[in-house]
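Here is one such tokenized protein:
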Amino acid sequence: MGAHNNVHIPGESWPHFTWFAIEFFVVLAIAAFSSREITKIIAKDAEPIMQNWYFFGIIAAIVVIWYMGIRYGILRRKVLETRY
């Protein structure tokens, strides 16, 4: 039985780097919404300038924790691999 040359294979047609971009924007959106809520709780009596520092500092912390701590520290471990 021969193979058809018009078969769509997503791994070959979809650019791989776009998954990294989608992941980055999802992490950034989650960090922004989380930071907004955390800033409301922590810095409700602070001046607006300091609230901006809290807001962007929390966003940076969440992004750094995700990319350096969780993504490369935990998700890339040999324990999580299914190959033996």
The chain has one domain: 17-80. The first helix runs from residue 10 to 13. The mean pLDDT is 83.
